[in-house]
Amino acid sequence: MTAGPDTPWRGVHVATPLLLRSDLSVDYDAYAEHVRFLAAGGCDGVCPNGSLGEYQTLTDEERARMVRTAVEASPEGHTVMPGVSAYGALEARRWTEQAAEAGADSVLLLPPNTYRADREGVVAHYREVAAVGLPVVAYNNPHDTRVDLTPDLLAELHGEGLIVAVKEFSGDVRRAYEVAELAPGLDLIIGADDVLLELGLAGAVGWIAGYPGVLPESCVELYRLATSGEPADIAKALPLYRDLHPLLRWDSKTEFVQSIKLSMDVVGLRGGPCRPPRTPLPPEITERVVRDTEAAVAKGYK
């Protein structure tokens, strides 16, 4: 299901990388070009300032300009969902207000990400950001935040009207069904590239993804097939998914930012370097990422 004016968080949203010059300054022109490329490739929108966008390394000025650049570069109908995660709820609210002023359509929000908040603290965190008025997509990544947005907690957040969807990155595809039971109106967004088919079959209506930034046309086709609900489409999706899975699984590894940027370089896009603390990939991982990327391209994926 694609995004619409009332559901701008649906469809394929690319978690876009931070494109840097050799001196590690942000290349906003290159980023704008990449946003236009993704829109032309059939993607429904972009998510600047997420984990793939190295948001923790950005200055306030850079972070705000990334959102404005994404909005300005997006053609009509192409939506922008900035990451607004921050150390505290007040800071996350300020980034949400900035996103609204810039013209963003929704926001993506982790729970507190340097403090293992209890249930009351998590609800208060989302309540603060939801007060701005933009649709909030919760981001469940217990591996990094150590806070797990369990199905019952998601149901509470949705029941209070604080979130419209969840980007599910726990890796536990069984949760999709419990979320649907406890919060039937909450949209499920695929949060990791290597569980696309499983969560698509479970009723997901969106995909916030890394590898569509490398192979947008093929990834969008795979998403459409995996989420249509038609048996014939699922049969078509399975061989594509098997072909691309060695590449897609890099999105769930610790070195996912470097890996996706390297894949961009391999296919002729501009990935480039990362800011510290990320360092270049070791030779053995570089070789594997290059091999997996070239294998996908050799099979005609683009």
From TrEMBL:
Instruction: Enumerate the SUPFAM superfamilies for this protein.
Output: Aldolase
One Pfam family from the record: DHDPS
List the keywords (alphabetical): Lyase
InterPro entries recorded: Aldolase_TIM (IPR013785), DapA-like (IPR002220)
Q: Family, per the entry? A: Belongs to the DapA family.
Q: What is this protein called?
A: Dihydrodipicolinate synthase family protein
Q: Which organism's genome codes for this protein?
A: Streptomyces milbemycinicus
